[in-house]
Design goal:
The protein is an alpha/beta fold and 326 residues long. The chain has helices at residues 2-27, 42-55, 57-60, 72-80, 91-99, 153-164, 180-188, 204-210, 223-230, 272-284, 286-292, 314-322, and strands at residues 29-34, 62-67, 86-90, 113-129, 144-146, 174-176, 194-199, 216-218, 237-241, 255-267. β5 (144-146), α6 and β6 form a beta-alpha-beta unit. The relative contact order is 0.17.
Length: 326
């Protein structure tokens, strides 16, 4: 009888523990962040954020996963379409979505888009082979240039900078709409003359592109073209490519160009507590985040609230008010 009693007690305890574990698993909310190509900066930056949040999984009941995607436009549309919860997007693409410009001209302003915070600056590169003879943007006329893949911020950046020189994609000998990972290989194979890429520094793919058999240089933007480019575009800033990161390239001095900011975006319907937890975790562990990727090393709380065109998500705003940042 006594044995039967203890057997029953052990069975009940095991069942209770199993039910408790299943309940905890059911209670955990899975969150997806859309990033970019695995050779770029978006993907490892997304993984860095996920690592921090998942380390606090028991506190907030969240499990963050990261997906490699086609980039900014894809991420914005996927987030708004409820295929993903958050995404990394260039500040210029965020601006265009909110205003109903470019890819969103037919759909109109994307009123459900929300900002969470800004991340690193992203530099626009135009990488040209020495054999192509390209030394300035005017030299791109008639050349075979990879200008960025559909759904990427790079493609629109290419259109904008060409327009500052009075050029369009039609003025190129051929405009290839390719991912940067494909473009770098084609450049080294001698099959294209130049390729564009908007990415944070230091970029592994740019290092790869400058270290092959074909010698390459970065195409500089003139002061006049940069002034024209920035006029009416508050999401662009002047910057320079730090050639110390890319010692195998032909350039001996930093190359003038422009940049945008990477931003973390979401939609209005994502629960406040989810965005609050992610925002608080990132900001309270900022020193650790900065160590997880070189592109994040210069982050400051103040800079992470710049370059945000979409309204702040209430969950993020709640933390900023608590922290005295708003």
């Amino acid at each position: 009888m006594k044995k039967s009693f203890w057997t029953l007690m052990i069975f009940c305890l095991a069942a209770a523990l199993m039910f408790s574990g299943q309940s905890a698993l059911a209670a955990k909310q899975f969150v997806t962040i859309g990033t970019g190509g695995v050779t770029g900066v978006y993907f490892p930056v997304g993984k860095a954020i996920a690592k921090l949040v998942n380390a606090q999984g028991e506190t907030y009941g969240l499990r963050v996963t990261v997906e490699s995607t086609g980039g900014s436009v894809f991420n914005i549309n996927a987030v708004l379409g409820e295929d993903m919860d958050l995404g990394v997007a260039q500040s210029d693409r965020q601006f265009e979505a909110v205003k109903g410009l470019s890819e969103w001209k037919t759909k109109g302003p994307q009123k459900d888009l929300r900002s969470v915070f800004s991340l690193h600056s992203e530099t626009y590169f135009m990488v040209a082979s020495e054999e192509s003879g390209i030394k300035g943007y005017a030299d791109l006329k008639g050349k075979d240039v990879a200008v960025g893949n559909p759904g990427s911020g790079t493609l629109q950046n290419s259109k904008d900078v060409l327009a500052a020189y009075g050029l369009t994609l039609d003025d190129l000998g051929k405009s290839e709409w390719l991912k940067a990972s494909e473009s770098a290989k084609l450049l080294q194979d001698g099959r294209i003359d130049a390729f564009a890429y908007t990415v944070g520094n230091p970029a592994g793919l740019i290092k790869e592109a400058t270290s092959g058999r074909v010698k390459v240089r970065f195409v500089p933007a003139s002061p006049a073209a940069l002034d024209k480019l920035l006029a009416g575009r508050p999401y662009y800033v002047k910057t320079a490519i730090p050639v110390s990161f890319y010692p195998m390239g032909l350039d001996q001095a930093d190359v003038p160009t422009f940049a945008v900011k990477a931003t973390l975006i979401t939609r209005a319907g994502v629960p406040d507590e989810v965005i609050y937890a992610i925002t608080k975790t990132v900001f309270t562990n900022l020193d650790e985040l900065k160590k997880l990727h070189p592109a994040l090393s210069g982050l400051t709380p103040q800079a992470m609230l710049e370059g945000l065109s979409a309204p702040l998500h209430p969950g993020a705003l709640k933390y900023y008010k608590e922290a005295g940042l708003k």
